[in-house]
Amino acid sequence: MDGTGNWDRGKLCSIFQSDVVPHILSIKCPDPSDMEDQLIWRWTPTGKFTTRSAYSLLSRSFWEQKSATWKHLWDAPVPQRLRLFLWVLFRNKLMTNVERCRRHFGHSSMCAVCNAADESILHVLRDCIVASAVWQRLAPSSPSPEFSTTNLQLWVINNLSSRVVHPEGGMPWPTLFISTLWQLWKSRNDWVFNNVMLPIEAIRNRAITWARYYLGVDQQAPPTASLSNAPCLWKRPESDCKEAIQMLTSPLANVNSSSLVRAIVKLCKRVFKAFNAPKYLTKNHHRYLFLVDDHNSGDRSSSQLC
């Protein structure tokens, strides 16, 4: 600066390029009376940060807690887990293959059911061949002609705010809509993780049955598959193991080893037949038969190994 407190143009031109000097000259020169720079939070009158002002800013800018959309969602007559599912869906965060690839969790964004398009939320819940067939069977109560053309958020809002009543049982369409979304998502997961594809009519019937239960029309919840009801493929045969140990430790085992081997093979066949699990016992079963054949041919070492 020069002696008057203004920029010294000559010194600036000797230091900086000519196209930079005008920008520097447009800046106000420092004044001795100026205060030091400090951080200011502009959303409070005092300029100081408060969590209350930050929460108010976030709520106003992103959450829109007074929006009618959230009222339709959180007041829906369905269990809380379905409301949370619908909220994740509406925020476009459902873990489809498209979302998995976006987060670098997977390598393919194709639909696992039809393998004909990217598995977006709208695809798996509306546009896929399975989802489309389910909605067609519920078409008499479709709330709007734009049902298959709108974007995700508008599609959800239109169906949640619909006052259409489904002819089967007189159920409000929003409840049946949420129930159908849930069953379509569960059906997709059954196919991806369990390799089980439900018939389209079964998905439709489940959606209607559960919607009736949510509304209190049916007092008893529909039956669901449970791990406790799954068939047991193999169980430790405690009594047979004890019997085999008794045979091996008996003093008669060294007298007639051929009879001992045959008795154990017969015991294994009984276990094999009782539990009906050939893929678990095939190797051992064949090994025992091999030992019997070797023993019958005079190979004493095989019977002793058994």
Describe the structure.
The structure is a single chain. The protein is an all-alpha fold and 306 residues long. Helix content is 55%, strand content 1%. The protein has helices spanning 9-15, 21-25, 51-63, 68-74, 80-90, 97-102, 121-127, 129-137, 152-160, 173-194, 200-214, 238-249, 257-275, 278-296, 300-305, and strands at 165-166, 171-172. It has a two-stranded antiparallel sheet. Strand 1 and strand 2 form a beta hairpin. It is elongated. Mean pLDDT is 76; it is low at 226-233 and 272-306.
Please give the alpha-carbon distance between the first and last residues.
Answer: 103 Å
Q: What is the count of β-strands?
A: 2
Helix content: 40-55%
Beta-strand percentage?
Answer: under 5%
State the shape.
elongated
Topology:
Elements: H1 9-15, H2 21-25, H3 51-63, H4 68-74, H5 80-90, H6 97-102, H7 121-127, H8 129-137, H9 152-160, E1 165-166, E2 171-172, H10 173-194, H11 200-214, H12 238-249, H13 257-275, H14 278-296, H15 300-305
Provide key terms for this protein:
single chain, about 300 residues, mainly alpha, 2 domains, two-stranded antiparallel ribbon, 15 helices, 2 strands, disordered C terminus
Summarize the structure in short.
Residues 49-135 form the Reverse transcriptase zinc-binding domain. With 306 residues, the protein is mostly helical.
